[in-house]
Amino acid sequence: MKKRNQRITALCIAVASVLSSASMVKAEDVSGGGASFPVKFLTPAIAEFNRTYNHNITYTSTGSGTGKSNFKSGTFKFAGTDSAVEPAKLPSFGWTYIPYVASAIAVAYRLDELKGVTLSLSPATINGIFGGTIDNWNHPSIAQDLKLNPTWANSKKKSDVKGATTLWQNVSRTSAKLTVNMLPATLKANKGKKIELINDATKKSVKTLTVGTKGAVNITFPVKAKDSFSVKVGGKTIAQYKQATVSLPNKSIQVVHRADTSGTTNNFCQYMKGAVNSDWGINDAFQNCVPGGTTRFGSRFVGQPQNAGVGNYVARTNGTISYLDVADAADPTRVAQGVRIANIRNAAGAYVPPTSEGYASHLGGGSQDARGLISFNWKQTSNRTAYPLGAVTYGLCQTASDAKNKVVAQLFEWLIKDFGPKNAEALGYTPIVGAAATQGIALAKKCGAS
């Protein structure tokens, strides 16, 4: 018996030694970077991947343009971009795109005089603001948009539950839909607690849900013009809504755009050209998209680096408006500073907020080519649930067979199959699903495979 136990012990030590050696062999240091659009998704994702698989992957947010250049030069082993690689930046080695997550692009603004009102903007008004022809917040076009869609204001500037935010949508004159968003840590801390929509006049609950695993939940309910509502999570108030009479201020509009070459910019410009005004260009540089350029507008147009820089500028500057990913626009700290997000009128005539569900509805009307690139359809005239402005973000990886490229393949396949479906909504993104996910996984498998 003693000898048998010794043999078992020796075998266990040998197996442990083999497993330890295998783990050491598999561990890789891999550096990537590029698009800032997916950073709030990638940061927790890569941290979890490294913990789970014992690798050391890093991702540096530089903007899509620099990401594509650094991938071509070999500075980045893999890269991220929200726009296609231009001919001048095509690598000389084998590589592929991998669509791995998407997100709506928010039109975010800070206008304290509105006291929390959600703006509703038509494509024509967005064209005027970002094209420079609408330069004041009291412009008749903005006023007309607000007349077409009842204005509800969230008077609570700071949520009592850190990481919980809301978006309001008018379904009709007599009904509304509220989307409650919670970051992953907030979701975990409040699991099992109640989400309540309370009519302030009657003090009664209109709808009650239980916090589960979904980072974004919707509540649809009837409304009247004189109603006011409180939204609570675990008994703490995260928002307070009532219909408001809007007096637009006589105040200059300052447009904030990306100063660096940006896939977020490219996708915003694609929307402007494809859905609004064919005179717009499509480029990673904002000044090259706007008809006639931006220098003629002087300080009314200001550039900031990456989406975080844009979001921070809007948050600290009253009278500003910009375009950026929803995760940065809905950041609780920026919301507490006064940042609000506009509803955009889609091709079916509905004013829709930039929710994960709304952008997924829009993506469903698009198409995907053999490279994995997804093209958008902005003419979905019967799709009232679609939020029409956003981006798909792509990984760029090398196909040459080496250990680091195989780890990159593992990362992107895991993002599409595991992390994205579980966490994208809570982080403010839209997971890649269905046929697009199937193609994305197939493309990921090409990394390090040749």
Question: Would you write up a description of this structure?
Answer:
The protein is of the alpha+beta class. The chain has a domain at 112-248 and 327-348: Immunoglobulins (Immunoglobulin-like, Sandwich), CATH 2.60.40.10. The protein has 13 helices and 23 strands. Strands 1, 2, 3, 4, 14, 15, 16, 17, 22 and 23 form a 10-stranded mixed sheet that branches. A 5-stranded antiparallel sheet has the order 6-13-12-9-10, with no helix packed on it. Strands 5-18-19 form a 3-stranded mixed sheet. Helix 7 (263-276) links the parallel strand 14 (254-258) and strand 15 (301-304). Helix 2 (39-53) packs across helix 12 (403-423) and helix 12 packs antiparallel against helix 13. The longest helix has 25 residues, at 2-26. The chain is globular. It starts with a helix and ends in a 6-residue tail after the last helix. 49% of the residues are buried.
Task: Give short descriptive properties of this protein.
single chain; 450 residues; alpha+beta; Immunoglobulin-like; ten-stranded mixed sheet; five-stranded antiparallel sheet; 13 helices; 33% helix; globular; disordered N terminus
CATH fold category name of the domain at 112-248 and 327-348:
Immunoglobulin-like
Reported CATH architecture of the domain at 112-248 and 327-348: Sandwich
Low-confidence stretches: 1-25
Mean pLDDT score, rounded?
Answer: 92
> N- to C-terminal separation?
52 Å
- Can you tell me the CATH class of the domain at 112-248 and 327-348? Mainly Beta
Strand percentage: 25-35%
Which structural class matches the secondary elements? alpha+beta
CATH superfamily of the domain at 112-248 and 327-348: Immunoglobulins
**Rounded to an integer, what's the Rg over CA atoms?**
24 Å
| Main sheet specs | 10 strands, mixed
Summed up, the helix count is 13
Overall 3D form: globular
- Residue share in helices? 25-40%
Oligomeric status of the shown chains? Answer: single chain
How many distinct beta strands?
Answer: 23
